[in-house]
Amino acid sequence: MADANAPVIGSIGWMDLTVENADQVRDFYSQVAGWQSQGLDMGGYEDYVMMDPSGKAVGGVCHARGGNVGLPKVWMIYIVVEDLDASLARCREFGGEAVTEPKIAGGGRYCVVRDPAGVAVALYQTIQPPSADGKPEYE
Fold this sequence. Notes:
Structural class: alpha+beta
Distance between the termini: 12 Å
Mean pLDDT: 89
Low-confidence stretches: 133-139
Number of helices: 2
Shape: globular
């Protein structure tokens, strides 16, 4: 049965910004955009979930550490795809390149790619709840 709350294929499911000075940038968007922040434990440090005044999560501000080292300093959008491996193969076929290989995070798998113009974007595939054998199933 399809989940009515599942992200729509082709939609922008998330956005985040990865920078060296995440604390300063978090404070900037709090003051400029009215966003509030909530810490997200990253194992030794916190990244930040940014929320609008109603408390709805609108994006993230991340430290350029761990798995985020080397990511471009841009507001990265995460486009929801049905099959990450197939989308990554098509990316390469149509002149794009992988910046990162697929990683598991936040209930899904993602990778960062560059399109033929050199613009970075993330592709994201949600993971279905575990099956009866306890293994996650990909959409």
